[in-house]
Each structure stands twice: as structure tokens, then as C-alpha cells.
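User: I'm writing a short report section on ligand binding and want a predicted complex to refer to. Could you take this sequence and nicotinamide-adenine-dinucleotide and write out the structure as C-alpha cells? A short remark afterwards would be nice.
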Amino acid sequence: MDALKHGSNPENLAGMEGKDGYSFVRGDITDADLMGRLVSEADMVVNFAAESHVDRSITDARPFMESNIMGVFVLLEAARKHDKRLVHISTDEVFGSLESGSASEDDVLNPSSPYSSSKASAELLVRSYVTTYGIKARITRCTNNYGPRQSAEKLIPKVIKHAMDGKKIPVYGTGKNVRDWIHVDDHCSGILKVMSDGRDGQSYNISTGNELDNLVIIRKILGIMGKPEDLIEFVGDRPGHDFRYSLDSSKMRGMGWRPGTGIDDGLARAVKWYAGNPAWWKAEDGWN
Ligand SMILES: NC(=O)c1ccc[n+]([C@@H]2O[C@H](COP(=O)([O-])OP(=O)(O)OC[C@H]3O[C@@H](n4cnc5c(N)ncnc54)[C@H](O)[C@@H]3O)[C@@H](O)[C@H]2O)c1
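Assistant: Sure. The C-alpha cells for the complex follow:
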């Protein structure tokens, strides 16, 4: 189920209904009646729903608090009432900016933006429901995703889209901010691993170790696309911009999970997908 808000593109659901037991419900996770009904019918609940864009959280934080905190509260109440397991999808941003080293699962949460604070709040709520009510819940945290079908408000599709159109590519500050990039397929395989082999009451960090600054990523994409680097345009930095995120994923690796996509191969595949699917772009443009 999904509210089809920011980040959604209805094209992603085309032709899915009825396939492999899939069915879609449009709705909001803050709707307690709907969530009660859907959760009661589920074997397990995996919660991806969130307002996810840091810039939007800075200009208007309220929807982030509603979906990312109140929505999780509603889901937790439903999971408690119907005794269902919840896998909650969180983010490396809950640890805030790290000068060195990598955050492990039990490190202190230290978020910087309204977005990351709302995600950290959700984690604390999940933990409190495990401790207080004994609900069955697990948390996954992942680094920056990329791959097909990602909204152009995120860095990599934005760069590809601007480069395809020959438009300037805005880069915050010096472009030296570091993120650890993971292909969406690897994030999914990590979540499946936690669903099958994880333990309730535990958190799991999912990361590849592909730590690269934004300029390196942008130059790689321009190189793959054969586009000039003078498309890059430096713009004023984002307020409170975290310099570096990094997760220690040794717990997941100890469970046998490994990422399967290298960054160069993953970026080349992403560029190919966006270049080959202009109709998808048009649908997204119409939607957002
Ligand atoms: N994209 C990343 O790099 C990344 C990294 C780590 C964690 N995450 C987490 O993964 C999850 C998915 O992220 P994404 O990048 O696909 O985000 P996205 O913004 O592309 O998609 C979020 C989806 O949540 C839906 N949604 C928002 N509020 C809702 C509500 N109240 N009820 C129902 N649906 C609602 C939107 O309609 C949208 O389809 C989020 O929880 C995010 O915090 C993302």
C-alpha cells in the first residue's frame, strides 16, 4: 500500500495487479482503520512509507512528522493489536555526520535534519514497542540507494536527467560530501535477509562500502554518458548538510549477506535504464 505522494510514479505499478499474488491499495499509513484492516490480513509488514527528501523536510517539516512518526505509531499499534511482525526501513542518516569510522548498530542516534530526526524518532518508537509491549519488530538501516525508477529529486537520477537534457547540474557546496552508494537490488536482498534470518528487537545496517563524494559520482555518470563536466554548477550548500555517512555492515555480512553490484556497473545499468525509458520520465514529471 502507498499514498502515491512524492517519490511515487504510478507507472511503476503498471501491469503488476494480480501478478505473483500482488495487489495494491492506495492509502495513508496514518489511517488507523485502514492500517488495522490491512495489518490484520498480513503475515508480515515491511514499512517503506516515508517522506524521504531532506530538502523538502527543511522547507516544510510537517508532512515528515505525520508520515514518518505518526504513521509508524499507527503501524505499531496495528502490529501490537494483531500480533504481526514489523520490519521497519530506516536510514544511515539517523547517526548524523561522521568524521571517521562507521556507525555500528548500537551507536547513538544523532540526526541533523527534520527528515533524519523523524526517522530516528520512528526507530525509538519501534524500540519502545518492542520493550514495552513485546511486539515482534526489526529495523534495517541503509545507505544511499540508486537504480531504476528512482524519483529525480534524488541525486543520481537528477544528474542523469539533467545531463540527458543538457541542463546544468546543481551541486551543493564543494561537492565533497561523502555518501555510501548501494544499488537498490542489494538493499532489497538485505531486507529479504533480515525478513528471513533476522531477530526481533534487533537493528541491521545494510551498506556496501562504496564511499564516494558527490563530485566523483557526478563525474562517473557524465563519463558513462559522454557528457562534458562543465554541466556541473556549484550552488549554495544545504543548511545543516551532513558531511559524511558511513555504516558498518559486518553484522549483515556475518549472516551471509553480500552486495552483488559494483558502483561502476550499477551506474552504467542505471544510465541505460533512464535513457531507455523516456515515458517513465514524462509520467513522473506529470505527477510531481
Ligand atoms: N532512497 C534512499 O537512499 C534511502 C536510504 C535509506 C533508507 N531509505 C528509506 O527507504 C524508504 C523508501 O525510500 P524511497 O527512497 O523509496 O522514498 P520515496 O520518497 O521515493 O518513496 C516513499 C514512498 O512512501 C510513500 N508515502 C509517503 N508518506 C506516506 C504515507 N503517509 N502513507 C503511505 N505512503 C506514504 C510515498 O507515496 C512514496 O511512494 C524510506 O523509509 C526511506 O527513509 C531510503
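A remark for your report: The chain has one domain: 16-278. The pocket of nicotinamide-adenine-dinucleotide is lined by residues 2-8, 28-30, 48-52, 67, 71, 89, 91, 119, 142, 144-145, 151 (CB under 6 Å).
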